[in-house]
Structures are given as structure tokens and as C-alpha cells.
């Protein structure tokens, strides 16, 4: 499993990498702009990400905008919904509006509210069929 971790907080980024590294390679970036760039680079290299863990509140470009752009890029490349990267929003925002926006307006695969817990993250990636 190839994973992209998009998180501006160093501690959260480190925890996610420690949890997910046993399942495959993990790249990390610190904002949505870098996430889109990493996604496009991997796609162009023929090595797309299986999982993208995406924080919502970040500088330069937030996770909501990055999610929309990534899903648009997949459509432009003819990626079918079943072959899209699994995108898990991992955030402190847990209002119903945020969750609905992420799923229905953005197209995320799953939504996890911080604090980051190993069992919760592994449960979600198992549910998504990634391991």
C-alpha cells in the first residue's frame, strides 16, 4: 500500500507515519498544495497512491480544496470510482456540516476525528479493503 500523509502538525504526521509504515511506503507533505503536487507527480510516474490521509485545516491550501482537486484530476485521467485513491480525512473538525461536506461534496472515502488512534486508523483501512 502506497500512502500519502498530508498533515501540517509534525506530531500528527509522525504518528500517522509510524502507524502506516508497516503497511507500505509513506510519503509526507505539510499542506494541500503539496498534496496535489505529490498526487500528480505519483500519477504521472504510474505509481498512484492507494491511501491519502488528509487533514482539513492547513496553510496555503486546506484539505477540502485539495480533496476536490485530487478527485477532479482522477476524473480528468479517466480513473473509475472503484480505482480512485482512498482518501481519509483525519481532522479535529467533527461538526455534521464538515462530515457531510467531506463525503458528499468532496468525495472522501472515510472520516476520522482526532486524536489519532492506531486501532481506529487500522480499522478504517481494513474497512476500505486496503490491507
Secondary structure layout plus pairing:
Elements: E1 3-6, H1 10-20, E2 26-29, H2 32-44, E3 51-54, H3 63-76, E4 86-91, H4 96-106, E5 110-113, H5 118-127
Parallel strand pairs: 1-2, 1-3, 3-4, 4-5
Give structural attributes.
131 residues; Rossmann fold; 5 helices; 5-stranded parallel beta sheet
- Class by alpha and beta content: alpha/beta
Question: What's the helical proportion of residues?
Answer: 40-55%
The shape is globular
State the domain count: 1
CATH class: Alpha Beta
CATH topology name: Rossmann fold
Distance between the termini: 8 Å
Low-confidence stretches: none
Major β-sheet, in short?
5 strands, parallel
What's the order of the H and E elements?
Answer: EHEHEHEHEH
**How many separate helices?**
5
Strand content: 15-25%
Oligomer: single chain
Q: Write the CATH architecture name.
A: 3-Layer(aba) Sandwich
- The CATH superfamily is identified as Response regulator
Q: Which strands sit side by side, in order, in the main sheet?
A: 2-1-3-4-5
Radius of gyration: 13 Å
Mean pLDDT: 93
**Got a strand count?**
5
What does this molecule look like?
It contains 5 helices and 5 strands; from the N terminus they run E-H-E-H-E-H-E-H-E-H. By secondary structure, the protein is α/β, with parallel strands linked by helices. The protein has a single domain (3-127), classed as Rossmann fold (3-Layer(aba) Sandwich). The protein has a 5-stranded parallel beta sheet with strand order 2-1-3-4-5, with helices on both faces. The model has no long low-confidence stretch (mean pLDDT 93).
